[in-house]
Amino acid sequence: MIAEEVVQAFVAAQERLDLDGSVALMTDDVIYHNIPFEPIVGRDNVRAYLAGWPVDSCVWEMRNIATRGNVVLTERIDYFTRGKDTITVPVMGAFEIVDGKIAHWRDYFDRAALKPRS
Q1: Nearest to 111 by CA among 31, 37, 32, 59
Q2: 110 catalytic, yes or no?
Q3: Which residues are CB-neighbours of 78 under 8 A, at least 6 positions away?
């Protein structure tokens, strides 16, 4: 898969709430950095983090996507629901792909957007 296809497959897995499918697309030593927070290093740690943030649904509305070599940039709006709460997060993401897997994933967003709205 080319870099953009890896990211598209990852987004599809996220939207299916397929944790196994999502982490299968990451390197063992992946770095996941939500820029307002500390980075998470290693596939098992990223899995634990994602599993600890349960949602009922997830939609990543891709506004723009750009690829240069092994780097994929995404401008998107992420929608999460949990019960009657909705979280809408405008995000700028950067994915670095190595040997067909995500080696570094950075998301830039306003931390205040994480507050649920009913």
Answers
A1: 37
A2: no
A3: 58, 59, 60, 61, 87, 88, 89, 91
Reported as a pLDDT band with limits 50, 70 and 90, residue 115 is low
Nearest Cα to Cα of residue 66 among 92, 33, 98, 40? 92
Q: Which domains does the chain have, with CATH numbers?
A: 3-114 (3.10.450.50)
Helix (H) or strand (E) holding 94: strand 85-98
Catalytic residue among 29, 78, 99, 110: 78
Residue labelled with tokens 């944790």: 19
Q: Which member of 56, 85, 99, 107 is catalytic? A: 107
For the entire predicted model, the pTM comes to 0.92
pLDDT, position 34 = 92
Tokens of 6: 């890896």
85 is catalytic: no
